[in-house]
Here is the input.
Amino acid sequence: MYRTPSRKRRPKEIKKPNLIPILDAVFIFIFFLLMSSSFINIFEISSDIPIVSSSPPPEDARDPLALTLQIDAGQLTLSSGIPSRQVATFGKTSDGSYDLEGLRERLYQIKTENPEERTIILMPIVDLEYREIVRIMDAVRVLRRTDDAIFMTNEDGIDVRVNELFGNVVFGNIRS
Here is the structure.
């Protein structure tokens, strides 16, 4: 008679992997991920690119403002209209920065005359630091609370307060 070997009769002991160190590592990784995510602040300033089209622009009853700010090494030149005509020039202050306060005051005057206009075209001719571009964009966008209120009439005929100077900033040329 055939007898099975003794090693086959004993049940095999199944070894389970030790998951505790793996779970510890995963929880520590999640903890550091959550802690580091709160330190990241992302700020965005929206800007459009110029529209390139072969079709003629739509007819409008009034001439476009076409407000353009050319940024040179020594000055800011504000121009308007098609064809472009120079409106104002702003040099640098004694500390070497652009006269953004004078620019903002002139843009405020233009906004009071054209409350519906939202677009300004920035044309940087020189290489600028990121901080300087943001300062210029803030100067052309922000309407201060201390400024006199500007109102415009919406499509329903209701007067609405304007909250920004020229919030739609378009870069006319992009340099790398």
The chain has four helices and seven strands. Helices lie at 6-9, 20-37, 100-113, 130-141. The longest strand covers residues 85-90. Residues 68-171 form one domain.
